[in-house]
Design brief:
- There is one protein chain.
- The protein has helices spanning 42-45, 56-74, 105-109; strands at residues 10-17, 22-27, 31-34, 79-81, 88-90.
- The protein has a single domain (10-90), classed as Rhinovirus 14, subunit 4 (Irregular), CATH 4.10.80.
- With 110 residues, it is an alpha+beta fold.
- It is built from 3 helices and 5 strands, in the order βββααββα.
- A 3-stranded mixed beta sheet has the order 2-1-3, with no helix packed on it. A two-stranded antiparallel sheet has the order 4-5.
- Strand 4 (79-81) and strand 5 form a beta hairpin.
């Protein structure tokens, strides 16, 4: 190995997790802070834990609740709920007129 080009290696680098667990490993950093480790990760513990990054879980659950409310209101006969405002409005049924039957050139000749 060349001299003076490699970073200093610490045999007793401390890893600190947000759950409070601490353990020692070899690293070029003296202390490392992590959000999740093998002591609290759902894969290793077998417990379900939602890791919320930037409120994504809350946004997802809010969307699900809104969809359920919308679906329940749509099941009511004769009313429709707009998803953004939640206002109930009556559905207007319009008759669709079918266009008149076109005559073929052969039919005109007869």
């Amino acid at each position: 190995m060349k001299d003076n080009i490699h970073p200093k290696y610490y045999d007793d680098a401390k890893i600190k997790c947000a759950c409070g667990a601490e353990f020692f490993v070899g690293s070029t950093e003296k202390e490392i802070h992590v959000e999740i480790c093998s002591m609290c990760h759902p894969f290793f513990t077998g417990k379900e834990k939602l890791i919320d990054t930037a409120g994504r879980v809350d946004k997802f659950q809010a969307r699900i609740k809104a969809a359920e409310k919308f679906k329940a209101s749509k099941e009511l006969k004769g009313s429709s709920v707009t998803p953004k405002t939640g206002d109930k409005t009556e559905i207007k049924k319009e008759k669709i007129e079918k266009p008149a039957k076109k005559l073929d050139v052969k039919d005109k000749a007869k």
